[in-house]
Design brief:
The structure holds 2 protein chains of 2 kinds.
Chain A (H helix, E strand, L loop, with lengths): L7 H23 L8 H21 L4 E9 L4 E7 L1 H25 L3 H22 L3 H19 L9 H30 L4 H6 L4 H18 L8 H4 L5 H10 L4 H13 L3 H23 L4 H21 L3 H32 L10 H4 L1 H15 L5 H15 L5 H27 L6 H4 L6 H19 L1 H17 L16 H20 L12 H24 L3 H13 L6 H7 L6 H19 L3 H21 L3 H24 L11 H27 L5 H14 L4 H9 L1 H23 L6 H9 L1
Helix pairs in contact in A: 1-2, 1-4, 2-3, 2-4, 3-4, 3-10, 3-14, 3-20, 3-21, 4-5, 5-6, 6-8, 8-11, 10-14, 11-13, 11-14, 12-13, 12-18, 13-14, 13-18, 14-16, 14-17, 14-20, 14-21, 16-18, 16-20, 17-20, 17-22, 18-22, 24-29, 25-29, 26-27, 27-28, 30-31, 31-32
Chain B lengths: L11 H19 L9 H26 L15 H26 L6 H18 L4 H19 L6 H32 L4 H7 L5 H18 L7 H8 L2 H26 L4 H25 L3 H22 L2 H27 L21 H15 L5 H15 L3 H27 L13 H19 L5 H5 L1 H12 L1
The chains are: A mainly alpha, B mainly alpha.
Chain lengths: ~775, ~500
């Protein structure tokens, strides 16, 4: 082993090749319409090739962080692979099961175009999964994480031509898993920004402070829980069973749903010290475990039964990881591997049952043991492992879980024990229900009576997995020495000195518990019989999800109706209120200035102005209001007069007269109907309040500005410059024709141009209407 | 640069645009094609001419980039690196829109000279804003940029919705300008100056008058921008306008206003951040949720995209709240990513118009993937980049922006932002789902894009993917260390 040191460059190339190989082959398949015949072979080759490369790295004892590309160091974006025993063995798992699933899928789909697309996408997914496992960088991990979600979306819709529900299922899975990962992204950012590194290895070797751990974990958890189908975000997984069986076997039992658990294992050295770790993971895991077992007992469709069992067992893994001790991490790792193997095999076995009996309903199946004995044996190997019977790998892992559970004494310990024991009883019960329902007794439908044994094409992949389950249990010592020990050491960063894994430890508490679990599980199965359990009064998660979306839609809809259709006045009022609000502070100081003596004439004019305003508001007709407005204008003119500015008075009067005339002319063209006045007193009061406040604020603004010291820079300049430079004394005239002569010239030009434009509009020919010209064309 | 030294205080891009616009106008008057023969050649020439003008601005900006010009307090305009980056960004987007317009407009059979001239006039206003160091010049630039848009929105004046949208744009624009000028007057009253350098020193937020002035300026700007709750006109105008104008408003208009805001804050109000951060945070949250919820409800694609653009504004506001060089650099990158996605998405709607009839409802896109694979895949790419899916430019943009905000300590707001973006993810995924998985309504020839359109769309796809797979969020940094230096300088005072 030591003789085969690979140089770092070679390691980088090999790892990158291992990650990219399936995706490249997948893309070739997707873009090669005539490649249907080669799909299966290429798929198997790609997965097996990847597995071989990874094995080569494993044998060479690769253990390093391989920096491929520093994209943007200060933003913590880089491509780096983390190659060690744990990640590599996960890769072997993923690519090995991948090759088997490709083999099975080739038989399942036949040589169809759909198979080519599905296998191609499956390969791309495989690459994403490998990338996720091998990433050393948080952000690279996130990218692959989302990529797996996207691939899952497309894979679920594979059968969209046959089943109508694939859409909703795919969309649900996408929004829950990809959306759930968004908070996770923030958690990653928080980790990276607060610690200054995004490298998993660096983070694990120097964990962040506890506060940061808790914040980051709280943000990352939604991503983990949604991906690994934990209550209450579990509902997408049973829905995803709309996918063809090989895809469910690969994505929704063996690999993708494990991504959350894998991330938990990676995160344990980083965030495991936080109080949140156990106190969130254990209750959620227990809930998931129990609810999953219960619902699995209630299913008639064996594929759904398996989906719910996956939910339950993912819950079990979360509880184990949630115990938060290094021994528990070890147990969770073993369970993860054992589960991936037997569950993938069981799903493929279900594909075989479906192919043989043409039904997946327990109410129609039965008696298959006699008709397809080979299948029965293979499934028995896998189901035995799931139920945790000796001597299968499932027994070993469950034993280890129980042992660690009894050894450890963490927070929420009793809850975890309860969850695991009850969950295990449920597991035994639904395994019995599944296995005996399918293979024992007599056929319950005509279809099943005609069931035929299935060929090796279908049987090969589950058989390999079943044998693996068996030998995993029988070779416990070897498994411990050559697999579990180095994997745990790589995950934790130190090796555990614990007793070796064995099938037989003598009679001890875990064994007694195990026996009790198996017996009571079987008793539960006998007691319930074959009748399905009700789903309960609670709405299902997918109903909740749909109603959440419907709720958002209806909120959006009512906002749309209520606000988008609101009169512009509401928006203008809002804008004015926000803009004027700081000016409200000016009212108080402005009030003090109001105490200065008032002139009688000014007051009289103000009264006149007030009467005009009151008329403007109260008069019912348009003409009346226009005249009232004119009154206001005239009062302003009077005010100018009082301030001895006769030229302003003239201008103001001219403008007032002209606007009144134009207004009155315009009113002729308006529709005669007056707008309906609102009768609501509350609304009117609100309007009054609003108007008074805005009025007060603008008056205060005006007063404040008025009190500011006059800015003398411009007047001083013009007063001194006008006689000397322009030889004139009237500042207005001098400015217009001398200082700003060019402006005046251009302005005059603009006015002339505008006049020409108006003339053109009045006398020019009409542009032919498009509708008219089309009409002519048709004619 | 032999012998010919042009002062950085002359708004060259604005002048280039104005000259080209006037030239186009004159050509349009002289060679007005008769209605029947439709002078396709003249129109093609006009579109090339506009493109040449925009290209000249880009080249000019690139030559100015490395010069590291600093603002001069006595000058109203300066073409500094920030202005150059802004100009390049908007000019490139405008170039793409001009290219997309030429096919689209021919389906309308309306004279095109006005269209291009107005577009260039509006651009000249945008470019004036980018370098202005004086509030009045800023207002002038904004007016110059937005007034032509009103006419562009009403360009298809025979369509009822187009002229209605133009009216709304006119009133909203007038009101917001009035509010902004009112505020500028108070700022002048409070300080006696309107140039950014003086405002930066003299503006005292303890003074209620200054506060009132600021409030008015901000409300005016927010109305121009379409931030919730000042957004009401935006979706209406965007839906009613011809699609080539909608995309101009969403991409160039919004980008311009965000960059203007950036400039005002960096150069004029850096000392006011303690006051502005809470305002930006509140605006951001309100905008994010309201706009996303509204977008969820839309069945008209143009309106939906408009709401999505408004929702993105909420994210942009987070950058202003964070107020760090990283956040602003991320903001510029984000604007670019957003421009690519929006230009592409609207561009695809434009390829579907036929004889002046818009096909802009979600139903029109049902099942087009079966016969128009390239278009469907391109649209999916644009939607994914708008949703910020990894592997797309939009993802790295959001990534960078959010990390800058986290670094500034506003973690909870980032969480809220991501919650809102779950909704936008759902909205964005609806389009590909409809395209790929629903039954086709009608097989329409109108979904065949012309070569120009195809080139532009593929270029957008390439950019979205290129920056997604090869992210270079430091592009603004690399364009000139001077820009980074400038940002640092302005923020640290």
């Amino acid at each position: 082993m030591e003789g085969m040191r690979l140089s770092e460059g070679l390691q980088i190339s090999l790892t990158t090749a291992a990650v990219l190989l399936p995706a490249i082959v997948g893309l070739i398949l997707l873009g090669w319409p005539n490649g249907t015949w080669a799909a299966r072979g290429l798929g198997i080759l790609a997965s097996a090739g990847t597995a071989l490369i990874v094995l080569l790295l494993m044998i060479a004892g690769a253990d390093a962080v391989l920096q491929v590309w520093e994209m943007a160091p200060q933003l913590f974006i880089r491509v780096a692979w983390r190659v060690n025993f744990a990640t590599l063995s996960l890769c072997v798992l993923v690519s090995g099961i991948g090759a088997l699933v490709q083999h099975f899928a080739g038989a399942y789909f036949g040589r169809t175009d759909k198979a080519r697309c599905a296998l191609g996408t499956l390969l791309i997914f495989e690459s994403a999964m490998l990338g996720l496992i091998l990433s050393d960088d948080l952000f690279l991990l996130f990218t692959f994480w989302e990529l797996t979600g996207l691939c899952s979306f497309f894979l679920i819709t594979t059968d969209s031509d046959k089943r109508a529900d694939t859409f909703a299922a795919a969309q649900q899975a996408l929004v829950v898993t990809v959306g759930g990962a968004l908070p996770m992204m923030v958690g990653f950012i928080a980790l990276a920004v607060m610690t200054g590194t995004s490298s998993l290895t660096a983070l694990a070797s120097s964990p962040p402070p506890l506060g940061v751990q808790t914040v980051a974990l709280a943000l990352i958890l939604p991503g983990i829980l949604s991906k690994s189908a934990q209550v209450p975000l579990h509902f997408w997984l049973p829905g995803a069973m709309a996918a063809p069986t090989p895809i469910s076997a690969y994505l929704h039992s063996a690999t993708m749903v494990k991504a959350g658990i894998i991330l938990l294992l990676y995160l344990f050295p980083i965030c495991g010290a936080s109080w949140l770790w156990s106190s969130s993971l254990i209750p959620i895991g227990v809930l998931t475990c129990l609810w999953g077992s219960y619902r699995a007992l209630g299913q008639d469709d064996i594929k759904l039964l398996m989906a719910w069992s996956t939910v339950s067992q993912l819950g079990l893994m979360v509880i184990t990881a949630g115990l938060g001790t290094d021994l528990a991490i070890r147990a969770a790792t073993l369970y993860l591997f054992a589960h991936a193997i037997f569950k993938a095999g069981l799903f493929l076995g279900i594909g075989g049952i479906d192919h043989s009996a043409h039904t997946r309903r327990l109410s129609e199946l039965g008696g298959l043991g006699r008709r397809a004995p080979a299948l029965a044996v293979v499934v028995a190997l896998l189901a035995g492992s799931m139920a945790g019977l000796p001597p299968f790998a499932g027994f070993l892992s469950k034993e280890l879980v129980l042992k660690k559970l009894l050894m450890a004494e963490p927070f929420l310990h009793d809850l975890a024990v309860l969850g695991i024991v009850l969950g295990s009883v449920g597991t035994v019960a639904y395994t019995c229900r599944f296995y005996f329902g399918c293979f024992a007794g007599l056929p319950r439908s005509e279809e099943t009576e005609k069931a035929l044994p299935i060929g090796w094409n279908f049987l090969f992949a589950p058989a390999v997995l079943g044998v693996l389950s068996l030998f995993g249990g029988l070779g416990a010592v070897l498994v411990d020495r050559f697999f579990l020990e180095p994997t745990t050491a790589a995950l934790l960063g130190y090796s555990l000195a614990v007793p070796e894994l064995r099938l037989w430890h003598g009679v001890n508490v875990p064994l007694i518990l195990s026996t009790g679990i198996v017996i009571s599980g079987y008793a539960v199965h006998r007691f319930i019989g074959s009748k399905p359990l009700p789903a309960g009064p609670l709405p299902s998660g997918s109903q909740l999800f749909e109603s959440f979306l419907a709720g958002a839609q209806s909120i959006g809809g009512s906002l749309n109706r209520g606000l988008a259709g609101a009169p512009p006045a509401v928006y203008i009022a809002l804008a004015l209120a926000l803009a004027f609000s700081p000016a409200l502070w000016l009212i108080e100081p402005a009030l003090d200035q109001m105490l200065t003596p008032w002139s009688i004439t000014g007051l009289l004019i103000l009264v006149l102005l007030g009467i005009g305003l009151a008329l403007l508001v109260s008069l019912p007709t348009k003409v009346g209001r226009i005249l009232a407005l004119t009154t206001v204008g005239f009062s302003v003119a009077l005010l100018y007069g009082q301030l001895s500015a006769p030229d302003l008075v003239l201008t103001q009067l001219l403008v007032e007269v002209l606007t009144t005339v134009f207004f009155l002319l315009a009113v002729r063209f308006l529709v005669g109907k007056e707008p309906n006045e609102s009768k609501s007193t509350g609304l009117n009061a609100l309007r009054w309040l609003f108007a008074s406040l805005i009025g007060a604020a603008s008056a205060a603004l005006a007063l404040t500005v008025h009190k500011l010291p006059a800015d003398g820079r411009l007047p001083d300049y013009f007063f001194s410059a006008a006689p000397e430079v322009a030889h004139g004394l009237n500042l207005v005239n001098v400015t217009l024709v001398d200082f700003r002569a060019l402006d005046t010239l251009v302005e005059t030009l603009v006015v002339i141009l505008a006049c020409v434009g108006v003339l053109g509009l009045l006398t020019g020919r009409e542009w032919p209407s498009r509708k008219k010209s089309e009409h002519e064309k048709h004619a | 640069m032999t012998g010919l030294e042009i002062s950085p205080h002359v708004p060259i891009p604005t002048l280039i645009m104005a000259v080209f616009a006037l030239t186009i106008l004159v050509i349009g008057v002289w060679f007005r094609p008769s209605w029947q023969t439709r002078g396709a050649r003249v129109e093609l020439f006009l579109s090339f001419l506009s493109l040449a003008g925009v290209g000249a601005c880009v080249i000019w900006s690139i030559t100015q980039m490395g010069l590291n010009i600093q603002p001069d307090p006595s000058e109203m305009f300066v073409f500094d690196p920030l202005a150059a980056v802004s100009t390049i960004l908007v000019a490139l987007a405008a170039g793409a829109i001009i290219l997309l317009s030429s096919t689209y407009l021919s389906s309308y059979r309306l004279p095109q000279a006005e269209y291009y001239a107005l577009l260039l006039f509006s651009l000249s206003g945008c470019f004036l804003c980018f370098g202005s160091e004086h509030l009045l010049l800023l207002v002038l630039g904004i007016e110059l940029a937005t007034l032509p848009i009103v006419f562009l929105v009403g360009y298809d004046f025979e369509r009822h919705s187009s002229s209605e949208a133009a009216q709304k744009a006119l009133f909203a624009g007038a009101l917001s300008s009035a509010v902004m000028l009112y505020g500028a007057a108070f700022l002048y009253g409070a300080t006696g100056h309107l140039d950014f350098a003086s405002l930066k020193v003299l503006l005292n937020p303890e003074q209620p008058l200054a506060l009132a002035g600021l409030a008015f300026v901000f409300v005016g700007l927010a109305m121009k921008l379409g931030l919730v709750p000042f957004h009401q006109w935006f979706p209406d105008v965007d839906q009613g306008a011809p699609t080539s104008v909608s995309v101009y408003i969403v991409v160039c208009g919004m980008t311009t206003m965000v960059l203007v805001w950036l400039r005002l804050i960096l150069h004029g109000l850096p000392e006011m951040q303690w006051l502005l951060t809470p305002v930006f945070l509140v605006l951001s949250i309100v905008t994010l949720f309201f706009a996303n919820l509204m977008a969820l409800f839309q069945r008209n694609l143009k309106r939906m995209l408009a709401w999505l653009a408004v929702a993105q504004l909420g994210t942009f506001m987070l950058a202003f709240a964070a107020h760090s060089p990283e956040a602003y650099s991320a903001l510029i990158f984000y604007l670019g990513a957003q421009a690519v996605g929006m230009t592409g998405a609207f561009g695809i709607i434009m390829t579907t118009a036929e004889g002046g009839r818009e096909r802009d409802r979600l139903e029109h896109f049902a099942g087009i993937a079966r016969h128009r694979k390239v278009l469907a895949v391109a649209m999916t790419v644009f939607m994914l980049t708008l949703a910020g899916i990894p592997g797309m430019a939009g993802f790295w943009a959001r990534w960078q922006l959010l990390s800058a905000v986290v670094a500034a300590g506003d973690l909870s707001f980032v969480v809220v932002q991501t919650l809102a973006s779950v909704i936008s993810l759902y909205i964005c995924m609806r389009v590909p789902i409809v395209m790929f998985m629903r039954e086709e309504l009608e097989v329409s020839e109108s979904f065949l894009p012309s070569t120009t359109e195809l080139v532009v769309l593929l270029a957008c796809v390439a950019v979205a993917f290129g920056f997604g797979l090869w992210p270079n969020p430091e592009l603004p940094f690399e364009w000139g260390e001077s820009l980074m230096g400038l940002l640092y300088f302005s923020v640290s005072g």
